[in-house]
Every structure is written in C-alpha cells, then in structure tokens.
Design goal:
single chain, alpha/beta, Dihydrodipicolinate Reductase, domain 2, six-stranded parallel β-sheet, 15 strands, globular, disordered N terminus, binds nicotinamide-adenine-dinucleotide
C-alpha cells in the first residue's frame, strides 16, 4: 500500500468533491475562514476595577491578545476573575509579589489599570521583571515621572505603550487619512470639548494624591491628545485659565474646569475645554483651508459619530479596546507601526503639555513648549 499515493488521491478526491457541496452565506464564510495560528500576546491586567474589566471583556474578541493573568490586592476579585475569564492560579499575583512574574513564561505584558498615581512605580517594577508595559492614560502624574518610566523600559528592553484607544478608532483614522491627503487643506483650527459631571466626591479621581489633579488628568487629556492627532503637529505654546465653582468637591490641586489654547508651528491654533462639571461634553472640530471634520461623540466608548465637508463618516464601530489590544499585540510581537504613536514618548508629550497647562493656570503666562 503506497500511503503517499493514497494520501494524494484522497486530497484530489476531496478537492474534486468540494464544488458539489453547496455552502451559502455564513456557513460558506465559516468554512473558508482559517483559524488564526499566529503569535498571541499574553496579558495580565493589574487593577481589576471598572476599566480593567472593560479591557478584559473586550479581549475575549481579540485575535492576537489573550488575558492570561491578574494582579490585584483583593483575593475575592481574583477568585471572581479566575471563574469569569479562566485565569489559572499560577498566573495570579498581588501588589507585594508581582515581581515574580519575571519567572512566568505565560505572561508577556502587564496592562496597568490602577489609579494614576500608582502607574509610575508599577510600570518600573513590571519593566524590571522583564515584561512589556501597557499603561492607562494619563501615563503618570507629570513629565518627570513619565520620563522615569520611558527610561526604565528602555533599560529593561521592554515596550511601553499607553492606552490611547482612539489612535486605532476607524472614523478617527479616516479623518487623519483625509488630513494627510490634504483633503482639509492646511489645518487652521481645532476645538476640543472634553467633560462630564463627576459623581461620588469620595472617589480617587477627586483625590489629588491618587489622581494627580482633576478633570485635566482624567478627561481633559483627550482634548490635549486629540488636538495633536487632529492637527497633526505638536503645539509650541499653551495658555490656560481655571474656573472653580465648587471648592468643597474640587479641593486644592483638583481642577474642576480649565480652558486652554495651543499654538502650532504651521500656524494653526486650538481652543479646548476640560471639565468635571458639565455633562456629555465630547466634541472635536477641525477646520482647514479647504474643509472640516466634526466628531460628536469624539472619544467616548462609541460608536463615534462624525462628518466632514464631504459627508458622513461611515466606518463601522468595533469595540475600541478589542481593536487596541489586537493592534498593540501587533506592535509588541511583530514590530507593527501604528498610524499615530502609542508609545511612552507619546504619553510623555501629553504629560509635558499638561505640566505646562497647570503652570499657565498658576502664572497666567503663555508657556513655550518644546516636545
Ligand atoms: P477604578 O476605580 O474603577 O479601578 C481602579 C482599580 O485599581 C480598582 O480595582 C482598585 O481596587 C485598584 N487599586 C489598586 N490600588 C489602589 C489604591 N491604592 N487605591 C485605589 N484603588 C486601587 O478606576 P478605573 O476607572 O478603572 O481607572 C483606572 C485607570 O484607567 C485610570 O488611570 C484611568 O484614567 C484609566 N481609564 C482609562 C479609560 C480609557 O478609556 N482609556 C477609561 C477609564 C479609566
């Protein structure tokens, strides 16, 4: 019996037989679809709160990223997550022992979703353990901390990525493509409005020690970052003004509302608002010599809605964190280059701008920026 000939005959028979098996619609698509067999980024989430949960749920639909571990100070949450996401016991850590992840071959990266003030030390420990760092925005409390994170990851030869999910969002990327193709002409003006009414006054977001500030650190950063990716340049100066109506809720060092303005090297300007006291403020507007783009909502979890002078933006909505984690896996595992950077240097630029905004508020001066 010639097994090789048998094998080839079987193959030939099956290929001949295929056209006689009618497959339509979804069944056909399913049959044609090849299961993904490429590399997968194995991720542990640190800080099992609201956003960490959102990322974990979104990762269920990822092709290239998988939740394999957790870091938490709350044993009951670890148990819940083990049951919900199938995380094995050997991949569960707390804040005292997570440096031991160094010896765990089943975790490639740790995604930090803890309060802002904890990001710096945690990221440096993750880097020292030889794992890639994905860190939520704001990357740290200020540029000095951000630089320390960038340096630590460079020394450890690991990647540092910041959770800028909008950098992978389809309608946002279409506006950026149109701008790069010259469809708006020279960009002249950006308006960014970012805010919501914050509730519970005891939450960490209103605690200067944990948040590093107020609305600017949490939501204003979307307009800071958005001004840069919508105009396509980094600002060279900033001015800013603070308004505080509720001094009980928004204590010293916790900003309620800040308006800020940027100037860009190409001559464009930006005018933005960051607030914790107005609801549903989520709007970007870009104006150029030949056209405009308007997005509202512009940075929420979506669907993002928008139009340009050429009509409505129609790119389909996909859960932002699913796309982000697949794309970040591509960056880490395959050296993929995103259209808009999401690395530590990108996070650091926003921290330098936010430092300058706070300085402008304090001094009333126009602050020059060199990014
Ligand atoms: P959260 O309060 O829901 O979760 C924070 C988690 O950190 C909790 O599980 C808490 O137990 C844990 N934690 C660990 N140490 C802590 C400590 N010392 N004090 C308080 N909590 C501690 O907050 P969140 O909304 O999940 O935000 C977490 C991070 O994610 C923040 O940096 C925030 O800016 C960011 N975030 C990003 C987005 C986005 O769209 N990219 C959205 C929401 C939050």
């Amino acid at each position: 019996m010639n097994s090789r000939r048998d094998f080839l005959q079987k193959i030939a028979a099956s290929t001949i037989a295929l056209p006689f098996v009618p497959l339509y619609g979804a069944a056909r698509k399913e049959a044609v679809k090849q299961p993904y067999q490429g590399p997968v980024l194995r991720v542990a989430i640190m800080g099992l709160g609201g956003y960490g949960t959102r990322v974990a749920d979104a990762m269920r639909d990822c092709k290239m990223a998988k939740l394999t571990g957790v870091v938490s100070g709350t044993p009951s949450k670890i148990k819940d997550w083990q049951a919900k996401y199938g995380v094995p016991e050997k991949n569960c850590y707390n804040y005292e022992n997570f440096d031991a992840v160094k010896n765990n071959p089943d975790i490639d990266a740790i995604y930090i979703t803890t309060p802002n003030a904890l990001h710096k030390d945690e990221a440096i420990r993750v880097a020292k353990a030889g794992k890639h760092v994905i860190c939520e925005k704001p990357m740290a409390l200020n540029a000095v901390e951000g630089q320390a994170m960038v340096d630590a990851c460079k020394t450890a030869n690991v990647k540092l990525l910041v959770g800028y999910r909008m950098h992978f969002e389809a309608k946002t990327l279409e506006v950026i493509r149109m701008r790069n193709a010259g469809e708006f002409g020279k960009p002249l003006f950006f308006q960014g409005l970012s805010g919501f009414r914050i509730g519970d006054p005891t939450q960490w977001r209103l605690n200067k020690q944990l948040a590093g500030g107020g609305a600017m650190m949490d939501i204003g950063i979307y307009s800071v970052n958005g001004a840069r990716y919508m105009i396509g340049e980094d600002p060279i100066w900033v001015t800013a003004q603070e308004t505080k109506n509720d001094h009980v809720k928004f204590k010293e060092g916790v900003d309620e509302t800040i308006t800020f303005q940027f100037g860009f090297p190409g001559g464009a300007t930006a005018s933005c608002l960051s607030t914790y006291s107005m609801n549903g403020l989520d709007k970007f507007y870009l104006n150029g010599e030949k056209g405009f783009a308007e997005m509202q909502p512009s940075t929420g979890y979506g669907p993002i809605l928008g139009r340009t002078h050429k009509g409505e933006l129609t790119q389909p909505h996909v859960t932002h964190q699913t796309v982000q984690m697949d794309e970040m896996a591509g960056i880490i595992l395959q050296g993929k280059q995103p259209v808009v950077a999401v690395d530590g240097e990108e996070g650091l630029k926003d921290l330098k701008i936010i430092d300058a905004i706070y300085e402008a508020v304090k001094t009333g001066n126009k602050i020059a920026l060199q990014l």
